[in-house]
Amino acid sequence: MTKPKVLISDKMDPNAARIFAEMGCDVDVITGETPEQLIARIGEYDGLAIRSSTKVTKEILAAAKNLKVIGRAGIGVDNVDIPAASAQGVVVMNTPFGNSITTAEHAIAMMFALARQIPEANAQTQAGLWPKNGFMGVEVTGKTLGLIGAGNIGSIVASRALGLRMKVVAFDPFLSPERAIELGVEKADLDTLLAKADFITLHTPLTDQTRNILSRENLAKTKKGLRIVNCARGGLIDEAALKEAMDSGQVAGAALDVFQTEPAKESPLFGTPNFICTPHLGASTTEAQVNVALQVAEQMADFLVNGGVTNALNMPSLSAEEAPKLKPYMALAERLGSLVGQLTRDAVPRISIHVEGAAAELNQKPITAAVLAGFLRVSSDTVNMVNAPFLAKERGLEVREVKTEREGDYHTLVRVSVKTDAGERSVAGTLFNNVEPRLVELFAIKVEADLSGDMMYIVNQDAPGFIGRIGTLLGENGINIGTFNLGRHAAGGEAVLLLSVDSPVPENVLQAACQLPGVKTVKALKFA
Ligand SMILES: NC(=O)c1ccc[n+]([C@@H]2O[C@H](COP(=O)([O-])OP(=O)(O)OC[C@H]3O[C@@H](n4cnc5c(N)ncnc54)[C@H](O)[C@@H]3O)[C@@H](O)[C@H]2O)c1
Ligand SMILES: O=C(O)[C@H](O)COP(=O)(O)O
Fold first, then answer.
1. pTM over the 0.90 mark
2. Does the Cβ of 72 fall within 6 Å of ligand 1?
3. Which residue range or ranges hold the ACT domain (predicted)?
């Protein structure tokens, strides 16, 4: 049997190459190539092991005729076109925890460097200036740290900051009150955090919701003299607005490990007093690099040699016998989880997954994992079916599984219910022809809808003429409706409308839909 061939295209700890070889793969380490060089080479490889430098674009994937798996030795996979990889059947794996401690430590190091102006004091001292009176720092003890994002890295930063006797205020819409108590942090909304924090540190992925979370408007709401640390992703801070806020004195210091454009060879922030930066070094310790290199090589080789799937972002972990039966259920489960996640803004302390009829005969674990992956992926693009149950536990989300073997109205049914402050809300779906996922119930209203692509969710008071008005609004804005699914409790009562649309609905159209008579809620939804 020919050995699988793996290319390591970014600088990686040598343990990765050793493990690939030991586990039966041929491995080449060729780093620093241009996209054109990679396109010319990639066709011969079964596996591609990367960090953040290699951008795995559609063009590279199109040339990767033999590629079966991409392994990211690290957390963020924003340098991989996952939809394109999935469409091509290429599994994308990451190592979700291997560099978390290291990155949290970098954030704390940056905070201290800012508080005591260490880089500039070092530079001036070494230049022979002995600037003894030029640097007056601040203590961190007793200060308030505003944590934006309280996931793996954010939680570690919180624990370290509490150890430094700081107060920690956390903004994370997916942080439950119970988990906040467990972490010892005060859960707050963003405006409260902005008003209270002496230091802010960011630990979220870059998503449509987090892009420019420190915008010009939000920077203006901060306490004067704030110090900011970003070791998560460039794009979370509006860099031009940050420069203005530093020049005006609103922000007393900023430390960035990540930039909107990387490599950041120039920036208006460079040279600004009290601005410090590192070249995306958050994960760069010996310990973290050994962790992620060993883990990515083990996972990828196990997949290429034995077919085992671990930490895949676009594929469930499954045995060969279970796979064909469970696959359509997992697609249904993931969509139901995603629907509930997208429609629930409040903290959710409990999620229940109830399988009924034919679904009750199957292994429920992968179904539950798929629901959790869909639900949690709304808040973090690094969630997969393997790490979702673990993350749910970490975040204090109680997961209940219920089985009813007897059939109800459908021969098979998966129901997902979440407990929120507003009460219990549930959605349910079935499989048509045993393979096609369909939503059949949405918050106690019977509907029938295929959850895919871009969609719009509208709750309105049932009244004549509404469907015409929404159709006209979308038509006038060039948005083509694919399917129209309507459900209501009773004529004239509350009705829900789920529309599939051929293109994303822009914010101004959502706002206009909100203004239509009788409309209570409008939300854009997106499904894989
Ligand atoms: N600088 C580096 O070298 C480096 C190293 C590792 C990770 N990272 C980056 O750090 C970030 C965090 O990683 P992690 O492992 O902690 O991820 P995680 O998924 O464990 O945590 C992310 C947290 O962000 C929260 N979140 C999502 N949307 C939010 C929003 N709109 N507002 C507030 N919070 C929101 C989520 O609920 C979650 O708790 C990622 O972007 C990752 O790529 C950077
Ligand atoms: O998401 C990550 O894991 C970090 O950004 C680390 O990136 P790196 O592997 O390129 O250092």
1. no
2. no
3. 455-527
